[in-house]
Amino acid sequence: MTLDRPGKGATMLWKFTLLLFCIRLSLGMTSVAIQSQPELWIETNYPQAPWENITLWCKSPSRISSKFLLLKDKTQMTWIRPSYKTFQVSFPIGALTESNTGLYRCCYWKETGWSEPSKVLELKAPGQLPKPIFWIQAETSPLPGCNVNILCHGWLQDLVFMLFKEGYAEPVDYQVPTGTVAIFSIANMTPESEGVYICRTHIQMLPTLWSEPSNPLKLIVADTFPKTWLLAQPSPVVQMGQNVSLWCQGPVDGVGLALYKKGEDKPLQLLDTTSIDDNESFFLNNVTYSDAGIYSCHYLLSWKTSIRVTSHNTVELVVVDKPSKPSLSAWPSTMCKPGKAITLQCRVPYTVLEFSLEWEERATFQKFSVDGDFTISNVEGKGTGTYSCSYRREAHANIWSHRSEPLKLMGPAGFLIWNYVLNEAIRLSLIIQLVALLLVVLWIRWKCRRLRIREAWLLGTAQGVTMLFIVTALLCCGLCNGVLTEETEIIMPTPKPELWAETNFPLAPWKNLTLWCRSPSSSTKEFVLLKDGTGWIATRPASEQVRAAFPLGALTQSHIGSYHCHSWEEMAVSEPSEALELVGTDILPKPVISASPPIRGQELQIWCKGWLAGMGFALYKDGVQEPVQQLGAVGREAFFTIQRMEDKDEGNYSCRTHTEKHPFKWSEPSEPLELVIKEMYPKPFFKTWASPVVTPGARVTFNCSTPHQRVSFILYKDGSEIASSDKSWANPGASAAHFLIISVGIGDGGNYSCRYYDFAFWSEPSDPVELVVTEFYPKPTLLAQPGPVVLPGKNVTLRCQGAFQGMRFALLQEGTLVPLQFQSTPGNSAEFLLHTVGAEDSGNYSCVYYETTMSNRGSHLSKSIMIWVTDTFPKPWLFAEPSSVVPMGQNVTLWCQGPVHGVGYILHKEREATSMQLWGSTSNDGAFPITNISGASIGRYSCCYHPDWTSPIKIQPSNTLELIVTGLLPKPSLLAQPGPMVAPGENMTLQCQGELPDSTFVLLKEGTQEPLEQQRPSGYRADFRMPAVRGEDSGIYSCIYYLDSAPFAASNHSDSLKIWVTDKPPKPSLSAWPSTMFKLGKDITLQCRGPLPGVEFVLEHDGEEAPQQFSEDGDFVINNVEGKGIGNYSCSYRLQAYPDIWSEPSDLLELVGAAGPAAQECTVGNIVRSSLIVVVVVALGVVLAIEWKKWPRLRTRDSETDGRDQTIALEECNQEGEPGTSTNSPSSISQGTSVELPVPI
Questions:
Q1: What are phi and psi of 426, to 5 degrees?
Q2: Which among 224, 246, 227 has a CA at the least distance from the CA of 235?
Q3: Confidence label for 382 from pLDDT (cuts 50, 70 and 90)
Q4: Are strands 857-859 and 843-851 parallel, antiparallel or unpaired?
Q5: How far apart are CA 317 and CA 263, in angstroms?
Q6: Average confidence (pLDDT) over 1092-1108
Q7: How much is the pTM?
Q8: In the structure, what pLDDT confidence band is assigned to residue 1178 with cuts at 50, 70 and 90?
Q9: 999 Cβ contact partners less than 8 Å away, ≥ 6 residues apart
Q10: b/e string for 953-972 if b means 16 or more Cβ within 10 A?
Q11: Is the dihedral of CA 644, 645, 648, 651 positive or negative?
């Protein structure tokens, strides 16, 4: 007895556990089903023959809704908008006919969109009951001992439900529920309960009328436990020394859990049923490398059972150490100056995900940066303190590195404040000295005119010294205030061409050889081939592919030598290509070998160029007889890879090429390449300030920076040095250099990198930046698969289709500087995978392709495609063109527009079962033309997306468009109160008067596609009020109306009414009849016309202050008595309702006279006046000529006076030069005889 009790206890525990699990399975799905899916059923008032009159009802499960949707056969839709929110609505079908048969479902509107559809109701031909649906209420197969509920939905109420099992003639159970669903329960599941079940219904009063059998349901008793799930918190990637929790969850309650590690037989930790109820988990403290591994979770069963346990998901725990610490430096220095900012630069020699900056004096301070630059401002001295930085990499985003060495920023305290004050005082004094020196210079220049020659020379020397001091001071100021970071302009040489050989004898290429030269620059005019650097072989004009062929034919001794080619442009010659060396008549050309500087512990690629396509390659090392590596035919070049560079890999290398088939014909070995591992600084940080994908003519700046100080930088393009910068000795912080290309050309693309060096060491090369110059090749096409709208967490593939093969592709996203992905393919297309997309992946994407052999010449950017990461399609917009109010018989186009590309659209008309469809639209517009519109076309329309791929994303309908057809009723009248012109800010009312009662009035405005407003007044008139009108309310208005009994069948348009919202009416027009020229004895009528009725016109004549005439009809008669009618006229008007407001004047109109007595009198007067003017001008010319003849004598007299003054100065100089010679004073010379000396002018 004692041995049996534990077994009985275990059996009771097992049954109790199964009972709990079965209850959970039975109740869990019920709640889920009730929450979202609506219920669809049939009601009829003919219980004996329900097909005579059918009404479908749709009921939302848990909430009221404002819209319901009935779908038939997945395409035809019927909308119901109840006047108030309700739980259920009805869809009358009527008598069942062949046109009504099909598959029906219904949906209801939720806050987030349409709900899941109901279960499918199949209506067949009249005389048959609808086919019931049959399902089991459980997530998984039932376990032994559980109770199972099987549900049968018969669609109609008061039916008899029969449950049949395969192999039994009689039903195993039946029910008569009050609703449309019957629940059959099978208690205590056993293997005997397994089998195939079906359900049928019949009418209670007519037991001979049966429905079709439901789809069969196969019931199988499960023999495995449900799967458990294991989750690591906070992440499966854990830092050394941290703690991690492993959460194990399973659907079976009341059962313990055990944690296992792969490779160990015994469980590491156990959790009993009480611990699971307390939401405890497996806990690993202070993890080390020994804790890394693969973990799984199993049920802990305390009884024996034949039910198997399924496989469990596993979690791989990765234990990593913190990455190495970065370097932190300050630019321009660690000294905070008032009003100046400091940039802290956190640097590491590899790409990271994010940098973080911490401030020790403030625990809550933390800044993040992608490029590692942090700007610190010293406002009120609050920027000083100790800083450190860390980073994290994309591979382990939750692991932050060790912190950098602390960096202290000091403020200008004590002596530093006095130093700052002193510097400012020196600067101010320097400015004062410059102003004083400028004044001295001006004084010297003024004084030199009155002093003797020697004193003038001395003062001139002083002036030169002063100007030199000023220039030196200005240079000193410029050096003090100049930038510390250099910016070096890159003078790009003409792109280097490419030289290669082709042959039609691959086994013996020397029998017929042709050399080809190709340039990356599209402006190349001609190519030149040179032999041995001096002998000119030939010139060839450039073809459309910017290349030229130089046939050599069969090789002879005269062909042996070194060849290279140049490309010629209009004003420049390119650098020579790589030298191609022909060494014999039956020997392949000598290849060229190169490699980047080797770095210990890193991968190294050795490049071997062989000139001919289809050749094999072999790499040799000195001291080793056999090749160390061999590659088959891979084109004209090959890359040999040394996976990890060590000391044993140092030495001299060379490469050779050979023909593809035996017996091999070999080339001469290339020149030796010496590989020596040298100690190097870490590689610099290299980037472009803008995107590396640029258009021709763009400005590109490369930034090369490093924490090391006082170093020089070198910029490389495709491995060749193109620019360098000198040491920045004035910069005490981190060094940096900016290399600038002012205007990028097609040939400037390529792979750029930089290095730095000092007296002792070089750095490692930086990561390359691929500069792509676009707009050379045709643009590619970019498509999204499966579509541009995707659920969060799913994958999207972007396929970029180019025009040429063997290109490299890049994927770009709008808003990011660096391309997201690169891919090189042998074909003409590339596929980019966006894995597990999120909301941040939404945006515009484009792609480009380019060739890597010729300066990264790229294509035009593809047309961008918008990727939406959402669970609901964005709402489209439906509008009509030219307007939604259309005259009878005209054409109209309904446009469904949305931001999603690559989808179709469905147009639906309210209360119609069919829908007009537009499939496979590749633009963002869907056009639905309606020609020869009639009364059948009126109604309410809406549209929605129809993607041509299978998508679970919810679709929401567009706005509702009311299409109105005019010309079916008499036209109304439209009036404006108080008038058609009002000032801004005032109120206006437009009154539309119809001829029929119970009408809906619609106000329209010219230029707008939709009606402005609709009203349903009780009488014959609608008042459309426009409060506080503005300038944009000006325009041409009209109105229509339609009867409520015949909606949207509208009247003709009313007469147009023009409205002005302005402080001053618009100007009128002024014209003359019959012409603007007076004829002898004839009058002219001036006609002033304005846009408004009920106005008074006034005519104005230039030269007269008061208005000349007033008129109500705008006609003014002008006569030309004594020539007073000639001149410029204008007119204006005022409204009788606003007599103080005048319009703007019209354009001027000129009236001229004709050849009559008055005209002749005017002509004679003009001739007299013109003659007097000519006489005065001639007299003035004679006077000027006389005065000009007198001018030389006056000029000679002035010269004699100036010469006398200069003679006095010269004699004084002679007196000082000859001692003992008497010199007359100026007074004596003036009293005695004057001595005339020649004075140079």
A1: -65, -40
A2: 246
A3: low
A4: antiparallel
A5: 14
A6: 77
A7: 0.41
A8: confident
A9: 1016, 1017, 1020, 1041, 1042, 1043, 1044
A10: bbbebbeebbbbbbbbbebb
A11: positive
pLDDT score of 371: 83
Sheet holding 885-887, edge to edge: 885-887, 961-966, 939-946, 904-909, 915-918
The whole-angstrom separation of Cα 206 and Cα 249 is: 52
Q: Please tell me the predicted confidence (pLDDT) of residue 1106.
A: 59
Length of the chain: 1241
Question: Does residue 333 sit in helix, strand or coil?
Answer: coil
CA–chain centroid gap for 1166, Å, is 72
* Total Cβ atoms within 10 A of residue 673: 18
Q: Tokens 């007359």, residue?
A: 1224
The mean pLDDT value for 869-882 works out to: 83
Calpha distance 575→524 (Å, rounded): 13
CA nearest neighbour of 528 among 583, 566, 478: 566
CA 681/CA 400 separation, integer angstroms: 24
CA distances from 979 to 639, 982, 988, 990, 1057 (A): 86, 7, 8, 9, 10
Give residue 905's identity as a one-letter amino acid code.
Answer: Y
Helix (H, G, I), strand (E, B) or coil at 829: strand
Question: The tokens of 83 are what?
Answer: 């006047």
The tally of CA atoms less than 13 A away on the side-chain side of residue 596 is: 24
Which tokens belong to 18? 């199964």
DSSP string across 1171-1216:
HHHHHHHHHHHHHHHHHHHHHHHHHHHHHHHHHHHHHHHHHHHHHH
The answer to whether the CB of 913 falls within 8 A of the CB of 945 is no
Q: Which of 41-55, 192-206, 1173-1187 is predicted least confidently?
A: 1173-1187
Q: Is residue 108 packed enough to be buried (19+ CB in 10 Å), middle (13-18) or exposed (0-12)?
A: buried
Residue 733 has pLDDT above 60, yes or no: no
The average pLDDT across 460-474 equals 58
Residue with tokens 């007067």: 1165
pLDDT at site 1002: 93
Out of 652-666, 947-961, 1013-1027, the most confident range is 1013-1027
Which secondary structure element, helix H or strand E, spans residue 9, and what is its range?
helix 4-36
Backbone angles phi and psi of 844, in degrees to 5: -90, 130
Which positions ≥6 away from 465 have C-beta within 8 Å? none
**What crossing angle do the helices spanning 1157-1217 and 453-481 adopt, rounded to 10°?**
110
Mean pLDDT of 781-805: 88
Query: What would the mean pLDDT of 1164-1178 be, rounded to a whole number?
Result: 64
Residue closest to 129 by CA, chosen among 152, 94, 153, 154: 154
Collect all residues with Cβ–Cβ distance below 8 Å to 634 and sequence separation of at least 6: 617
Residue 850's DSSP bridge partners are: 808, 858
DSSP-derived 3-state class of residue 1231: helix
Residue 253 Cα distances to 18, 224, 228, 656, angstroms: 9, 15, 12, 72
pLDDT in tens, 1050-1098: 888 898 888 888 777 778 999 998 888 877 667 888 999 887 777 888 8
Tokens describing residue 436 = 């004083």
Torsions phi, psi for 633 (to 5 deg): -65, 110
CB of 825 within 8 A of CB of 807? yes
What are the structure tokens assigned to 151, written together?
């549900």
Cβ(662)–Cβ(626) under 8 Å? no
Tokens at residue 68, please? 């319901």
Rounded to a whole number of angstroms, the distance between the first and last alpha carbons of the chain is 147
Mean pLDDT for all residues in the chain? 77
632 has pLDDT over 90: no
Tell me the DSSP string of 138-171. Answer: -SSPPPTT--EEEEEE-SSSSEEEEEEETT-SS-
Q: Are 376 and 344 in contact (CB under 8 A)?
A: yes
Which of 198, 132, 202 lies closest to 160 in space, CA to CA? Answer: 202
Say if strands 961-966 and 885-887 run parallel, antiparallel, or are unpaired: parallel
Omega before residue 663 within 30° of 0, cis = yes
